[in-house]
Amino acid sequence: MLQRHKADANGDGAGPAITIRREDYSAPAFWIDSVDLTFDLDPNKTRVLNRMTLRRNPGVAAQPLKLDGQDLNLARVLLDGQCTSFKMEGQRLVLNHLPSVEEHGTAPFALEIFTTCCPARNTQLMGLYLSQGSFFTQCEAEGFRRITYFLDRPDVMASYSVTLRADKALYPVLLSNGNLVASGALEDGRHFAKWVDPHKKPCYLFALVAGNLVAREQKIRSRSGREHLLQVYVRPGDLDKTEHALQALVHSVAWDEARFGLPLDLERFMIVATSDFNMGAMENKGLNIFNTKYVLASEATATDSDFANIESVVGHEYFHNWTGNRVTCRDWFQLSLKEGLTVFRDQEFSQDLADSPSARAVKRIEDVRVLRTTQFPEDAGPMAHPVRPDSYIEINNFYTVTIYEKGAELVRMMHTLVGRAGFARGMKLYFERHDGQAVTCDDFAQAIADANPASDLARLLPQFKRWYSQAGTPCVHASGSYDAASGSYTLTLRQSCAPTPDQADKQPFVIPVELGLLSASGAALPLHLAGADSTDSAPASAPTSRLVVLTEAEQTLTFTGLGSAPVPSLLRNFSAPVVLDIETTDDQLLTLLEHDTDAFNRWEAGQRLMLRCAIDAIADGANEAGASSHIGHIGHKVLSADLIQAMRSVLRHPTLAPAFKELVLTLPSESYIAEQLDVVDPQRIHAVRQAMHEQLALSLHSDWAWAWEQHQDSDRYRPDAPSAGRRALSGLALHMLCCAARHQGAPLWPGKAYQRLKSAANMTERLNALSALVANGSELAAPALARFHALFKDEPLVIDKWFALQAGTPDRAGNRLSAVRQLMQHPDFSLKNPNRARSVIFSYCCANPSAFHRADAAGYVFWSERVIELDALNPQVAARLARALERWKKLAQPWRSAAREAIARVAAKPELSSDVREVVNRALAD
Ligand code: B3K
Ligand code: ZN
């Protein structure tokens, strides 16, 4: 039985979902000063008594009070203690007979609303729901209206006190935001707890948790000497997996205080883990709720990436305490105000914690890889939207990589333009101006600029803000020419940005380009930029890297004093979120790969070289008559001998960090290769990439064996960056060796992998071994999978990995889809648990292109069935899956027509959530 009102996600009952526009923003007609909530928790019928104090907003014309609500049963409404009339407008509760402005002015009045709801039937996991017998809430963006009637918008900030009452045996722990002020026993085996939040907050930051939970805790003292209690709550059997998350929280508190002077403003800060959660985690004030995936870790069950992700998500949610909670968003169009800034902060946190220059570079490369493989495609597809969108139908669809990751890049560019100290000054001014307010992206950029009046950001602020209003990824085309007679090098940089939905013409962006020049032998050259340097600057004192800020559609830079043609190294450390289209020769790229002082561009040179080879091989195939996707037609010579040799040098390099080597030696992903092409043949891309992989495996066989032997760790497990890097490189080596073994018919390395699977002392090595066997179709894969399942059958997060590995593995025998359908029949599978649904369905539809894009369209049929099935349970998760085919227009035939048909089949369903409806309608739009 569904509780959701389809095609009415706005909760206003006004029929089909409507478009919300940023330009229509108006301040609320009422403020809510205080909220006193009493919950009688019961899975089937939870009673909620909501006593609020409200007053009219003097700045807004008098009008009725319209409170948001969704799937609530209304029992009583009292105005100042008296019965009052009300009416329903769709799902909204409307009160027309409030004290008039004439008699009452803007004096406060009291409203008491009594409702019930049914957490046990809440499968969409928004509002109040049950997970494994405990109560949890998720209110962002618009879930609070599923708990009680309210002005469910982020600019209404109120003081909360919350009383929870529940059966003591079933729900011994009762938590909400703020401080515990009272607790005790009630009749009939029930008990209560009363919490008061000392800070005003928007309702999306409200949370409660009730259940059988245990906590690991630690007391810390802040710089000011205040003591705080940090707690991580989990189910009783999971306590031994909480130390890493707790330490990540301890580090987060210290980091925000040290780097930005932002202290913890609460006596107690709690994290609670649940296995049923739509996303990663949620920053509710003082009571963060997390997906177990981002809390629980032991060396036996979690990989190095899990450990790193936990650190960054714990940091992210904690940093929201200031960027999001103390200063929040005026409206949901400003979402990147808190998300972009907080992603930037968590990225910086991870880099600062890792501490070595090489680990910082590795983290930067990983972040850019996410941006380019997920956000660039979003920016080029039907869901493209500016970092500050102008309109939406379903706000849940706009928790995107554009808002988060591109938003973080915008903050990073500001940081680059004003410098580290200048940025810290800007943050200080931002909090001085806006603490306790609900503000806009403009307010943030203005504060950073005003704190740095002499900076390029201040000078260029109106133009810089185009990054917030214009969607699409800018392209910078670079071409250079050297004039031997004058010893000068002229670099012409042209920027452009393709049209996106609703935005045909784009104005030039402010693009910070960090650059350097190398000699042909790899030496860093002093940069004399004509027109920028004083004439008397001595050559030796000239910098070897500098920042150039592009503002025009075309700009020319001239560097002087050069004895020979230099090799340009542009966009160092990925100084702007753009596509750099640069004319370089393979030799120049090889020089950069070998010598660039900028680690990012060193990695980038290797990626470009491999990408070139891939694109050439794909084009060759497309030119062959009856182009075939079969690997036999590609052969094993996609990568040039020079490139193989360069890769060998990196692998064997005496001083480069193993983590960096692993990144260099990892081929560009199939989706990144696809992004470079106008027409995408997923099978051909897979075949070419596979051929490249095999070529690397075979040509560097003895080097991989060396790498495997050299990077074994016998020490106690530690998830730090150097140890994780060694495991990453030895894991890649094992993959390569098992791949080579398949070609050579040699059982040695699969045998070693199987041994490692049995004896590994940590999950990283165990999973690397398992995936080397599964991905390479070894006959040991089946027994390895069975053994792995038997070992971890009681560890849901590990079983997620077991499912994901099988659903995400390439299709060797044309049977991956039937394997996926079988996985869905497995007793451990459940569509209702988002982690499990993602581990099977998303791993197949979103992370396994060659198995998903079948010529017979069966993958697409599977996709459409799952979107529809999931939509009835959980529209947010369904809408994410619905996006798997949004780039269908780029596909070659026959996939293109088949994909369109599958999307149309979903769109034809009359009973769709507004979440999925918005995604499929956009995908089908011209
Ligand atoms: N702010 C939450 C995301 C909420 C998503 C709502 N659909 C987590 C985060 O970004 O920290
Ligand atoms: Zn966030």
TrEMBL record:
Q: Which Gene3D superfamilies match?
A: 2.60.40.1840, 3.30.2010.30, Neutral Protease Domain 2 (1.10.390.10), Peptidase M1, alanyl aminopeptidase, C-terminal domain (1.25.50.10), tricorn interacting facor f3 domain (2.60.40.1730)
Going by the record, the broad EC class of this enzyme is: hydrolase
Q: Which terms does the record give in the GO molecular function aspect?
A: alanyl aminopeptidase activity; metallopeptidase activity; zinc ion binding
**EC assignment:** 3.4.11.2
The GO biological-process annotations, alphabetized, read as: proteolysis
SUPFAM superfamilies (alphabetical)? Leukotriene A4 hydrolase N-terminal domain, Metalloproteases ('zincins'), catalytic domain
Q: Does the keyword Protease apply?
A: yes
By what name is this protein known? Aminopeptidase N
